[in-house]
Write a structure and sequence with these properties.
Elements (H helix, E strand, L loop, with lengths): L24 H5 L7 H14 L4 H20 L7 H15 L9 H11 L3 H12 L7 E4 L2 E4 L24 E10 L3 E10 L8 E8 L5 E5 L1 E2 L4 E7 L6 E11 L2 E6 L6 E5 L5 E5 L6 E4 L10 E8 L7 E8 L9 E7 L4 E5 L7 E7 L4 E11 L2 E6 L9 E5 L2 E8 L6 E6 L2 H12 L2
Antiparallel strand pairs: 1-2, 3-4, 4-8, 5-6, 5-9, 7-8, 9-10, 9-13, 11-12, 12-13, 14-15, 15-18, 16-17, 16-19, 19-20, 19-23, 21-22, 22-23
Helix pairs in contact: 2-3, 2-4
Length: 438
């Protein structure tokens, strides 16, 4: 028999959980703090008074019932007198009568049904289950629906409708990614996934790419490996340009559920051999695949930090440093390029370290005026960033076949530009003579 020795402290709802309404301090003062019919009635009155009939009011009422009814019905345990329990039951039944229960969770739909039909003992049994933490009983799957076997499920005497036990819409996919890789071929991932609460809930899986702005769906079968484990691959060649949210769909015993995949917050960009650009990002709301540089330009992944003469590498040779932050790109696609005004180009391949950094020697020994940049080329497309000007860079001087040569950095060109040529000896002598003539 319930009594004051049994409490519902874990189910108590305080004013911190008030409906999201612009309530005044005076209105808040009218709300009882103790769970029970007076508090529930006053909150319902405030919602009705502050909102117009419609979806917003319905959502607030459903939120109210979900938040307040467990504590209100648990208060029955604190009342040892049977007549008082019956009175509380009747009062709660009257308060909830005007409201539908379709938007509530199955446990709350069952609670409302027992209240509406004044089933006191059965409601106390349900409260006891909640107080004991038994809120996720076994689930029966039948004809594509899932039913939680709460008390009195298919009881031949009470005949509570199956709809009060239907948790199909409440089920979710529980998943964990064990590997995730994006390269120039596609997106490969592996992990574990199952529909929570469904026996043998691993089922079959599909990777679903859904257009972030369009809602267009692309589906790719995943391979099951038993016990809920799966592997999947999305070829970049099969994904049109766009921003795609990455989901996982799992079907277990005829019940299909979907979840947005998530991963540690990191951004990985690749360039495929045909020039396709893809970036895998993990914002707070889950994995996103950007195909086509719509959010993540390749140039943002290319950087030149500096350039300095390196005597050990040869005469007039610059050591250019920087980083290419691409996880994958075609071999030989990255180079330092010197371009002249008349269209000549000189390319030096760039090899990067594991972290994408590079230090590449670039000889500035060809005669002419050259503008330097870092260039990535793939599939007929190219991207470039300039080598920044180096204000402190001196003129390099050396001899070739006994004749003097120079490589002189040029200022104010928007990128590091170098003029290379042979010193005109006679002109140089005349210049020195003029400087020393009194």
């Amino acid at each position: 028999m319930p009594g004051p020795d049994v409490t519902a402290a874990d189910l108590t709802v305080h004013n911190a959980h008030l409906p999201q309404l612009p309530l005044t301090p005076d209105q808040i003062k009218t709300i009882p703090t103790t769970p029970g019919p007076p508090r529930l009635r006053r909150l319902a009155e405030l919602i009705a008074g502050e909102t117009a009939p419609g979806d917003t009011r319905d959502a607030l009422i459903h939120g109210l019932l979900a938040a307040e009814l467990p504590a209100a019905t648990a208060a029955l345990w604190r009342e040892p007198r049977r007549p008082a329990q019956a009175a509380l039951l009747a009062e709660l039944g009257v308060i909830i009568a005007p409201y539908g229960t379709d938007g509530l969770a199955a446990l709350d739909r069952l609670r409302c049904h027992l209240l509406a039909h004044r089933h006191l003992d059965e409601l106390l049994t349900l409260v006891r289950c909640e107080l004991d933490g038994r809120t996720e009983p076994e689930v029966l799957v039948e004809d594509g629906r899932a039913y939680a076997q709460y008390p009195y499920f298919r009881d031949s005497t009470l005949r509570v409708p199956d709809a009060c036990y239907d948790v199909t819409d409440e089920l979710a996919v529980h998943h964990r990614l064990t590997s995730l890789r994006l390269d120039g071929i596609g997106l490969a991932l592996a992990g574990e996934a199952r529909v929570h609460r469904i026996p043998d809930g691993g089922g079959t899986a599909e990777l679903v790419l859904r257009g972030h702005a369009t809602g267009t769906e692309l589906r790719f079968p995943a391979q099951g490996e038993g016990d809920g484990r799966f592997t999947g691959h999305v070829p970049l060649a099969d994904v049109p340009e766009g921003v795609w949210d990455v989901h996982l769909a799992v079907t277990a015993r005829g019940i299909g559920k979907e979840t947005r995949l998530g991963a540690p917050d990191a951004t990985v960009s690749v360039v495929a051999s045909d020039g396709t650009v893809a970036t895998l990002a993990a914002p707070a709301d889950g994995l996103t695949l950007d195909v086509g540089e719509l959010r993540h330009p390749v140039q943002d992944r290319l950087r030149v930090d500096g350039a300095a003469w390196d005597p050990q590498a040869g005469p007039a040779t610059l050591a250019v440093t920087g980083r290419c932050a691409l996880a994958d790109r075609p071999a030989g696609s990255l180079a330092l390029r010197a371009a002249s005004a008349d269209g000549q180009v000189v390319d030096v391949p760039v090899e990067t370290g594991p972290d994408g950094s590079f230090r590449t020697p670039f000889p500035c020994t060809a005669a002419g005026e050259w503008r330097l940049g870092l260039r990535l080329a793939a599939g007929g497309r190219e991207w470039a960033v300039p080598v920044p000007e180096q204000p402190g860079l001196e003129v390099a001087r050396w001899q070739r076949l006994g004749l003097p040569w120079y490589a002189k950095p040029l200022p104010d060109r928007g990128a590091l530009s170098v003029r290379t040529g042979r010193v005109e000896v006679i002109k140089g002598v005349r210049g020195r003579l003029r400087r020393h003539t009194p």
